[in-house]
Design brief:
globular; about 240 residues; Rossmann fold; alpha/beta; about 15% strand
Length: about 240
């Protein structure tokens, strides 16, 4: 065995452990055992803001639906977003999704759990469904960030997780890479629900970021065609309205 390969094999468990269990804050770099240090948590995780109960865009009054949802009600019934997709928290999403910093996923779940439990009058879903990735993107990335968040969230809320409740019927382009006018066509018919357990149930759909909401609306429509009576989106971050 070449020396270089032997050295790599000797070191990779430590490298993996460092990636999964970082010893510094992902925001400020301060040494510590927490993935986000307490000062950064207190500074950047703002108190719950007033949002549209349907799409989680900001609104001026508690319980008030935004104009967009009043004009065109989406297939989903509710959305809870823990934080705004804005600096510096947006960088955490990118670290999880594209740098494989999986230790962030339980922290996302912790923040999202707090947001769910703080939502007035919100009835917990009967089961959780992570937004599925297409086969090609799953192979490229090696993991589904929505599932990595959904696993600890399931335990924190005591809600059953159904990792394969929905699948992608086809690979689609990333919604962030297509124009707003193309997003509906890009995602149309992309999901298949293959588990009968949704019949008559309230399904919580878990994702890292909600942007236009088209992906979540398409998945909600598929879940309702399969018999779900209510679909709520549980997302870590919400982008600003377009």
């Amino acid at each position: 065995m070449p020396d270089r390969l032997r050295l790599w094999l000797h070191r990779w468990p430590r490298a993996l452990a460092c990636a999964l269990l970082p010893s510094s804050c992902a925001l400020c770099g301060a040494a510590g055992v927490d993935v986000i240090c307490r000062p950064c948590h207190q500074q950047y995780v703002a108190p719950r803001r007033t949002r549209c109960p349907c799409c989680a865009n900001p609104v001026p009054q508690e319980g008030l639906r935004c104009g967009s949802c009043l004009a065109n009600s989406p297939a989903y019934d509710a959305t809870i977003a823990a934080v705004d997709y804005a600096a510096p928290l947006d960088q955490l999403v990118l670290q999880l999704k594209f740098a494989g910093r999986l230790a962030l996923a339980p922290w996302f779940a912790h923040i999202l759990r707090d947001a769910v439990l703080a939502q007035p009058g919100f009835a917990l879903p009967d089961l959780l469904c992570p937004v599925p990735l297409g086969p090609r993107r799953l192979v490229e990335r090696g993991f589904n960030q929505a599932l990595e968040i959904a696993r600890p969230l399931s335990g924190a809320l005591g809600i059953a997780l159904r990792p394969r409740l929905a699948v992608r019927a086809r690979d689609t382009r990333a919604q962030s890479g297509v124009s707003p006018g193309e997003r509906i066509d890009n995602i149309r018919g992309a999901f298949v629900v293959r588990d009968e357990c949704v019949q008559g149930r309230h399904v919580g759909v878990v994702d890292d970021v909600m942007t236009s909401g088209q992906t979540l609306a398409e998945l909600a429509a598929a879940l309702k065609r399969a018999g779900a009576v209510r679909v709520s989106n549980l997302v870590f971050a919400r982008t600003a309205p377009n």
